[in-house]
Amino acid sequence: MTPVIELEGLGVRFGKRDILKGLTCSLSGRTIGLLGPNGAGKSTLINTLLGFYQPCGGTARIFGYDIRSQIKQIRSVVGYMPENDAFIANMTAVSFIRFMGELSGLPSEAALERAHESLFYVGLGESRYRKVGTYSLGMKQLAKLAQAIVHGPKLIILDEPTNGLDPPARLRMIRMIKEMREVHDVHIVLCSHLLRDVEEICEEVLILKDGRIVHYSNLEEERRANRRFVEMEPVGDSAAFALALEGMGCECALSANRLKAVLSDGMEIRDIYRLAAERDVQLRRLNYRRDTLEDIFLKAMETNTNGGL
Amino acid sequence: MAVYKRSYRAYSGRLTPPWSRFFVLTRYALRGMFRSKFLTTIFVLSFFSPLVCAILIYLNHNATILNMMHARHNEAINVNGDFFLGFLGVQGGIAFFLTAFIGPNTIAPDLANGALPLYFCRPFSRAEYVLGKLCSLFYLLSFITWVPALVLFGIEANLSGPGWMWENRSIASAILLSSWIYILMISLLAMALSAWVKWRIAAGALILGVMFFLSGFGAAINAVMQSNIGFYIAPGPLITRVCAQLFGVDARIDIPVAGAWAALLVMCGICLALLAKKVRAFEVVR
User: Fold this and answer.
1) CA distance A60 to chain B (A)
2) What's the domain range around B119?
3) What average pLDDT score do residues A180-184 get?
């Protein structure tokens, strides 16, 4: 399968400043998260993928199309929701979305039909004849999403989509993005500094720092792997209990009153309880030890930025 | 299915040809322009002069009226290069006034509202954007300049016969070429200033200012240096010189035609460079 995004030593320089430094990776997930602190290069990466900035080295491909030579093909399969305010003030929402659809190549009638659909889909159906300039911040975000999907792109790039949204609107936006991912054949790149949003939506995460990739994480795999990690608080002969677990093929680490274990294949939680009962060990607490995205992010931020992925 | 029940779906229908998409921008820009009642009024009033000229041309061929005035054919008015140059001068003034009014609205709102990334994230280039906006001004100004001029030319040709049309065929091409140069020059100037000055009133004033200030400054240079070098920085005299040459009349601006063409090209080049600098999805801060 063609990767959604492939970066091959991608570098971007503004004047004498290197903004992106030799990024190399291949991303194929349905939802890809771009994370990083301010100034890490997330938006620059997106803008380079869209052809707004010229790379100074290396290249990138979206669905196999090269950003250096096939930018029109890329733009015809991508929908982009920018981070900042972006609209045409003196147009009604429906005219605005129709206009954007027509610019993407839709015939006038199809663009009008899809403009109505997109606006209803994002929840602006009732306000679609209002001028976009009169919209609230949250409504403008939704209008930006509508223009990004009006032409039915294969890849939707969302730059901080939940910015300025109140909690219900944020939940609605996240639900919509998830629905697009699950129900429709569309890939999503989500650029956000809100770890919770990325964690809820994304399968793959790319963490940038100072223009370099400091961490790549397949959250789906990690979620699966995390189910094999358990952390317990045994009371009793913990050492013997750990030995017994190891005897069943688990990897164990005992520290103070905590016991961490990686379960062997086929072993279930009930086997742990049974073993504890046999050894007369009380389990005060047992939970899956799960690296949250925050843990991953903080670890990545501690990483030296002298290497790519 | 009711529209509100539809959900997101991919588009698999027909697409318009890529070369034609800049017309979308032109169409929407023209629609936006004619929302202004002031512009619509001025646009309608701009047909007053062609109407008067058409009536004059008709009267010039009407034997009864000429007899009443004890005049002969072409004595009241002589429909020649001077006539059409004068007509385009009047219409050009109206066109310039309109451009100063609508020009600031071409690019500045898109820049102010951050709309440029929305255009350029689509299969739509910067050149197509500029071309689309330029075409909207071109269409509008065409209906004020060369279209009525050619209609007048047609009326005169119809009344005078094919011989007149054949003898004066160079006037038709001069009408077209001089109008196109003029429209291109003022449209590029308006768009360049619109891209750099976001405040509409200031941009409009600047368009007027650039034309009049440069003409005044050029005249001052001519007076101080006792030469004609000042004409090279004044768009008005340059266009007049080029148009006069095209119509084959005396321009009273003593600079070589080739020099005037070159200066106009340089000015258009500067406007394009200014546009290229500003018309970008995102400005790069180095």
Assistant:
1) 16
2) 19-278
3) 79
Confirm whether B209 is domain-assigned.
yes
> What pLDDT does residue A180 have?
85
User: What residue segments make up the domains of chain A, in order of their start?
Assistant: 5-222, 227-288
Nearest CA in chain A to B106: A88
- Residues constituting chain B: 286
Class of domain A227-288 as given by CATH = alpha beta
Give per-residue pLDDT as tens, A150-163: 999 999 999 989 88
The whole-number pLDDT of residue B125 equals 93
Rounded distance between C-alpha atoms, residue A70 and residue A66, angstroms: 5
The encoded tokens of residue A15 equal 């004047």
The pLDDT tens digits for B142-197 are 999 999 999 999 999 999 888 989 999 999 999 999 999 999 999 999 999 999 98
Nearest to A52 among B16, B113, B282 (CB): B282
Residue B165 in domain: yes
CA distance B32 to A99: 12
Interface residue B120 vs chain A (CB under 8 A): yes
Rounded CA separation A20/A49 (Å): 12
Checking if the pLDDT of B283 tops 80, the result is: no
Asked if residue B126 lies in contact with residue B22, where contact means CB atoms within 8 angstroms, the answer is no
Which of B25, B118, B285 shows the shortest C-beta gap to A147? B118
The separation between CA B231 and the C-alpha centre of its own chain, rounded to angstroms, equals: 21
Chain A residues closer than 8 Å to B136 by CB:
none
CA neighbor of B102 nearest in space, from B43, B205, B33:
B33
8 A C-beta contact, residue A204 and residue A29: yes
The CATH T-level fold of domain A5-222 is Rossmann fold (3.40.50)
B113 reaches A (C-beta below 8 A): yes
Per-residue confidence band for B10, with pLDDT thresholds at 50, 70 and 90: confident
Cβ of B12 and A152 within 8 Å?
Answer: yes
Given this model, what pLDDT does residue A190 score?
A: 94
Q: Are A194 and A173 in contact (CB under 8 A)?
A: no
Question: What number of CA atoms fall less than 13 Å from residue B247's CA on the CB side?
Answer: 25
Question: Residue A89 in contact with residue A131, Cβ under 8 Å?
Answer: yes
On whether residue B11 sits in a domain, the answer given is: no
Strands A204-209, A31-35: pairing kind: parallel
Name the minimum distance, in Å, from the CA of B172 to any CA of chain A: 36
Of A107, A125, A184, the CB nearest to B9: A184
Q: Is residue A307 predicted with pLDDT exceeding 50?
A: no
ipTM of the complex: 0.87
Distance from CA of A227 to the nearest CA of B (A): 34
B20 at interface of A, judged by CB pairs closer than 8 A? no
A120/B121 touch (CB, cutoff 8 Å), yes or no: no
**Each residue's pLDDT tens digit, B95-109:** 999 999 998 889 998
When divided into structural domains, chain B yields a total of 1
